[in-house]
Automatic annotation (TrEMBL):
The keyword Transport does not apply. GO terms for molecular function: metal ion binding; monooxygenase activity. Belongs to the fatty acid desaturase type 1 family. AlkB subfamily. The keyword tRNA-binding does not apply. It holds the Pfam family FA_desaturase. It comes from Glaciecola nitratireducens (strain JCM 12485 / KCTC 12276 / FR1064). The lineage of its organism: Bacteria, Pseudomonadati, Pseudomonadota, Gammaproteobacteria, Alteromonadales. One of its GO terms (biological process) is lipid metabolic process. It is a multi-pass membrane protein. InterPro entries: AlkB/XylM (IPR033885), FA_desaturase_dom (IPR005804). CDD domains: Alkane-hydroxylase (cd03512). This is Putative oxidoreductase. The chain crosses the membrane at residues 20-42, 63-84, 111-133, 326-345. Coiled coil: none annotated. Residues 115-320 form the Fatty acid desaturase domain.
Length: 384
């Protein structure tokens, strides 16, 4: 039973985070600090989860995934309340019932606390919606799963992820044709806009090619890239109706943070690794971590090496792959390191050198030499 319950980790921390946002004022800062510390310290001190349990209760696993829908709804409702100029009678009732003046707390929330809430809620959204959306859009042929995944991803302006991620990233990972695989020496600040532009361009091209093959109009509702953006527009339109322009700005900011977090995660999962386009994807072509807290919080997403080696494998069957390239730390702590490029390069240097020495074949070493010949300094070839 424990191996099922461990995946409820992120729901619990998200609901605790939601509570701090609802309480508003300094509670937002406190909640954000506790959230970050829990995941960094938890990954540092609770070690790795190398277990491979045989989880057969598919209904329970699916229930946990789809529980992200009401949890996301609760999160976004609280976010909208924090900034809406409208008075909600239910909040007056809740204030009198609980004995805490939520209305006054919202009115007294400082702009700095609002800005922290954008980042905090963006992180929570990326975990509860993006991670689950990623799992669901891999279930090719399951219309309910893909539609739910696309709606979850649309909150971060990324419903087209269901196109590009499955039909481009997984095919071209660790090659120059993959917009989210960052070459050595590229900082996260340079990579994020490149990745966002590249993934959107790729998604459009994939859909255009598919529709032309089916003899359907590219500029139509048959185009899933277009319908994905319509999902986002519908969401923002709803927010405008219930929370005016303040709500739209706030949830748009949260969505953008979640999207940037996704690209940061892509960056650290694939940074500096290369593969010959005609060679199959292997566990060595992505960075892996089995840190216990990260794996439990993100439905085994950190077991990324197995996910890329066998993309159709559901999260509960992903293997630990202890011999795969190992990420610096857990996901939250690695995100922090990525944001400090000099430190990131320094820490990645020995890891990339180890990959070159023990895992790279001659074709991959040749690709690295070619990259060096195209102007990447030798020191940055190993992440310096």
């Amino acid at each position: 039973m424990f191996h099922y319950l461990k995946f409820t980790n992120y729901f619990i921390t998200t609901l605790l985070g939601v509570s701090s946002v609802l309480l508003a004022q300094y509670w937002i800062l406190l909640g954000f600090g506790v959230f970050i510390i829990f995941y960094i310290v938890g990954d540092a001190f609770f070690g790795e989860d190398l277990s491979q349990p045989n989880l057969t209760k598919k209904w329970a696993l699916d229930a946990m995934l789809y529980a992200s829908v009401p949890t996301t709804f609760i999160l976004m409702t609280v976010c909208i309340w924090l900034v809406t100029p409208f008075n909600w009678p239910i909040m007056h009732w809740l204030s009198s019932t609980i004995g805490y003046d939520f209305v006054a707390a919202k009115a007294n929330t400082h702009i700095i606390e609002i800005l922290v809430a954008v980042v905090f809620c963006g992180l929570m959204l990326s975990g509860i919606a993006t991670v689950v959306g990623h799992e669901l859009i891999h279930r090719i042929g399951n219309k309910k799963a893909i539609t739910t995944g696309r709606w979850l991803l649309s909150l971060s302006f990324d419903a087209s992820f269901s196109i590009e991620h499955v039909f481009n990233h997984h095919i071209h990972v660790a090659t120059e044709n993959d917009p989210v695989t960052a070459p050595r020496g590229r900082s996260i600040y340079k990579h994020v806009p490149i990745a966002i532009w590249g993934t959107n361009k790729s998604a459009w091209q994939i859909e255009a090619k598919r529709l032309k093959r089916k003899k359907k109009d590219v500029l139509s509702l048959h185009n899933q890239y277009i319908t994905g953006w319509l999902m986002t527009a519908a969401w923002l339109g709803f927010v405008f109706l219930v929370a005016s322009w303040q709500g739209v700005l706030f949830v748009a900011g949260i969505g953008l943070v979640a999207k940037v977090v996704l690209e940061i995660v892509n960056y650290m999962e694939h940074y500096g690794l290369v593969r010959h386009p005609r060679e199959r994807v292997m566990p060595k072509h992505s960075w892996n971590t089995n840190r216990r807290i990260s794996c439990w919080a993100m439905f085994n997403l950190p077991r990324h090496s197995h996910h890329h080696a066998k993309g159709a494998v559901p999260f509960e069957k992903l293997e630990a792959m202890p011999d795969a390239p190992v990420m610096i730390g857990g996901y939250i702590s690695t995100i922090v390191l990525v944001l400090l490029p000099p430190l990131w390069y320094r820490l990645m240097r020995p890891k990339l050198q180890h990959w070159d020495d023990t895992m790279a074949n001659e074709n991959e070493l040749s690709i690295l030499r070619t990259q060096q010949g195209h102007g990447i300094p030798t020191s940055e070839m190993t992440g310096a």
